[in-house]
Design brief:
Radius of gyration: 20 Å
Oligomer: single chain
Structural class: mainly alpha
CATH class: Mainly Alpha
Helix content: over 70%
Largest sheet: none
CATH superfamily: MFS general substrate transporter like domains
Distance between the termini: 53 Å
Number of domains: 1
Length: 403
């Protein structure tokens, strides 16, 4: 009976829950940054490292998780790393100093297993045309937890202290671990390649120009979002003077937009094509940032003017990222796990760089203008990367016609 369960395909809800663990761990505690700073008697810049270090660790884990799952299978790798993440979450709660807390946040990045393997499992289960739509639905469900997370985290921080946000992470990760144990079957039909063989797949992936087009588009598009995560809470608390619970409520605009974008991806990607959807998503973000700059200039002291316009940041990312990720894992289908991990590492690594830059250079008293410019710079690079994919595909068509 147990063997039969291991051969079953997981439900899409299970994949959505697994993919939600890392985003929840990343943003549920953001309204508590000021409380954490006070608790550990340190400065805001040091506590901001808990965001960029988590992203950096997540990027590294994403690179390694793919090859590990190709070698040992999706199921055991996911269950093992979720257990490690649970232990790291407990260390965050009981950390005696900021150094231990930051170290635990790095280990907590192992929760990235859910995002990486959800994409690889979808590729295992579906073909190229269908995978973008399914990834869209998975990530649409995934956004429910991080969408509610900041609001819940803000409320918990005010009522019970900053540690309560991490107890929420612990409870949700435990629930996902239990659900995955009973529902997540093994979908990798090619288990057993040596790690050396798996890593030898990297040159095959890296040599693909299409992989780099998709991966860089994904990295720069998500960098606009991670830059917001790195600077948004600080702007909300220090510039607009919002309470932790209100910070969480304003995050609904971005998360809600992301969910709508995922729905549109699930509905239309198979019909329109993932390349066009990816490009359109970036244009949506660009328009949203122009609106954000205009509204913020007209109403400089209105948090609603700034945050409501960032609905389009979430909307565009919700369209772009599932399609770009589908492109990544379909460039070399035989190495879907390694490609997903490598692409995910570039995506999160780029996000960590932009989040770190924003955390270092941003001065809250100057308002959100620097933050908007950084997000705009990232999205311009994402648009260029998407156009590069169009260029490569056009060349392939012309070469095929010549033959």
């Amino acid at each position: 009976m147990h063997k039969a369960r291991n051969l079953s395909n997981p439900h899409i809800v299970t994949l959505s829950m697994a993919a939600a663990v890392s985003p929840l761990a990343m943003n549920v505690y953001l309204p508590s940054l000021a409380s954490i700073t006070e608790h550990f008697e340190t400065d805001a810049a040091t506590v901001q490292l808990s965001v960029s270090l988590f992203l950096f660790a997540t990027g590294i884990f994403q690179v390694l998780i793919g090859p590990l799952s190709d070698k040992f299978g999706r199921r055991p790798v996911l269950l093992c790393l979720f257990l490690i993440s649970l232990v790291a979450t407990l260390v965050c709660i009981y950390a005696p100093n900021i150094e231990v807390f930051l170290t635990a946040r790095i280990v907590q990045g192992s929760a990235a297993v859910g995002i990486v393997l959800s994409r690889a499992i979808v590729r295992d289960m579906f073909g190229n045309a269908k995978s973008a739509s399914v990834i869209g639905y998975v990530t649409m469900g995934m956004t429910v937890a991080p969408m509610l997370g900041p609001a819940m985290g803000g409320f918990l921080a005010e009522e019970f202290g900053w540690q309560a946000s991490f107890w929420l992470i612990f409870a949700f990760t435990s629930l996902v671990l239990i659900v995955s144990w009973f529902d997540l079957g093994e979908t990798n039909k090619n288990i057993g390649a040596s790690m050396a063989d798996t890593f030898r797949a990297w040159p095959n992936i890296i040599s693909s120009h299409r992989f780099w087009g998709y991966a860089l588009c994904c990295a720069f598009s998500s960098a606009s979002f991670f830059a917001f995560l790195g600077g948004g809470p600080l702007i909300a608390i220090e510039y607009y003077g919002l309470s932790p619970s209100r910070v969480g409520l304003y995050f609904f605009f971005v998360a809600g937009g992301y969910m709508v974008g995922n729905f549109l991806t699930g509905r239309y990607s198979e019909r329109i094509g993932l390349n066009r959807m990816m490009f359109l998503g970036n244009l949506v973000v660009g328009v949203g940032l122009i609106i954000a700059m205009g509204l913020t200039s007209l109403l400089p002291l209105s948090p609603m003017a700034f945050f409501s316009s960032l609905f389009m940041l979430g909307l565009g990312n919700g369209i772009t990222l599932p399609n770009a990720n589908a492109g990544i894992v379909n460039v070399r289908p035989e190495n879907a796990g390694a490609a997903s991990g490598l692409g995910g590492g570039l995506q999160i690594g780029g996000g960590a760089v932009f989040a770190g830059l924003v955390g270092y250079f941003l001065r809250p008293e100057d308002g959100p203008y620097l933050l908007i410019w950084v997000m705009a710079f990232a999205i311009v690079l994402a648009i260029v990367s998407a156009m590069y994919v169009f260029h490569i595909d056009r060349k392939r068509v012309l070469e095929a016609q010549r033959k």
